Amino acid sequence: MAATAEGLPHDDEVVVDGPDAPLRTALDAFEQGRTLPVRELLAATREQSDWWRRNWYVGELAERLLQRPDWPLDELQPADAALLRARLALARAWEIRTGDRARNVSDEQFRSFHTLLVDAVALIEEAVRHNPGDPVPWTIALAQAMGIGAERQTFEGYLARALEADPLNWAAHTSAVQYLGKKWYGSHEEMLAFAEEAAERAPAGSVLRGLPVAALSELVLDESLRDRSDAEEKYGPIAHSRVLAAISAAQEVSAAFEPGDHRAGAVRNHLAWALIREGGRDQEVLEAFRAIGADARTFPWGYLGAAGSTFLTCRKGARAQVAAHTPVRARAGVRPEPAPVKPPVTRELALALAPVRAVAEAVLLTGTSYRMAPLAGGTGTWVETAPALDPPGKRGGLRNALLGEGDLVRLMDAATGADTWPVLVFSRLGDGAYALTLIRGGKQLAAHAWTGPAGMPRQTEALATAEVFAQALGLPDARPFAAVLRDPGEPAQAAARALAALGLPPLPEGIGQRAELLAELPGVRVVRKRSLREAIRDTLRDDDEPPAL
User: Taking a C-beta distance cutoff of 8 angstroms, is the pair 172, 155 a contact?
Assistant: First the structure.
């Protein structure tokens, strides 16, 4: 699992719709009430006909103006000020409507939304007058027309004007994809056909060649397709061959740009989701995330939940799937060195200090079946792998041997990468020793093995280890646990005393003596192995029940 992090920024570095350096400088000045950097930024995009960035920058500044209505907009050049006023009018309308599904928006919100969009027409017309030859006012007009449900003829007229100014304009094309989609005023077939035709007309090297993969993301909102898994059914009327062609074209676009490139990011984020939805292409998913870098986008991830957390959940899932399929120490073209000899693990059990639902959501993406039983009061969850519940297949031998592989530590590593709650994994080793491993945030913080008198650690070593456990569990005094770590007695009894020293409930009866000992505990539940796409779907459920138990 650790190796799959290569080439990926840390979770804390990922930003949704993050600014580039020039925009970041302008936004800092904006927050300080200074206008010159903003004035220079927008003037440069206009003078250089950099329509991609002009559209992007105007949108970001308009969102900031929602919170700063007193900002001196009149100090900008008239063309730029007019453009920002028009874009701000749309931002105000959407602030009232919200981005929620239509069924969750009240009639009053819809009325206010429609009124504000109608009022925006005069501001859009002013922006058009001040910006001849600029496609950005027309992309704003496209968004306004879609919001009020304008007739097809009106929308197509705006689209023609935008493409007349910039035939490869990404924003105009993606607006058309949404307008022509089933969720707005068209169909899946019409939407994808438009995207394919636009991609075919685009020259080699243009990001517009990846437009069909962005169209595929619109299928997420079609609830009739949500639970379909067959390749010929899960895309509705769209032939599977067209889906594969869209993915292939997007991969070509991605390969033509450097990792982290902002323009390619518009395609790469959709590509990652398309590969997840397709299934069975885990390594390609991970490569797509590597190409994205820290440049997550609202779309498509915002369709699936909170964009930032959904992006990280899917990325962690891709890592877990690749790790689960990769033999330890495997290297392309290199003969693996012999692994160091160590006592085999015969039994394992984890205690996650989190409710069952939180643990179930975390482990969904590891590609393994688990059995869980809650602690009294719901403050923690016992966890063990349940290999007998995994369906047979080409990896069945590995899954059926999980309890003898010592994989629970690795699997909990993979499961808890984005979570802050600690996990304790108890392992009985083949030589009769017992081990305890502390995991949090996808990292092994500390570990200890009771092997009898010969393995007793020194006082300083035991106290250092105990302090790590105490800090993770919020204990004021590490010394009682340090004494347990130095217990030279029978390993099984020492391991049992460890939980008491940590202020936790006792181990279930039979730990280390038999497999799958949670099966008969009250409240036991099972999270079954599933594909990455199925796991992500269950992770993003809206209800309060643990996913697919």
Answer: no
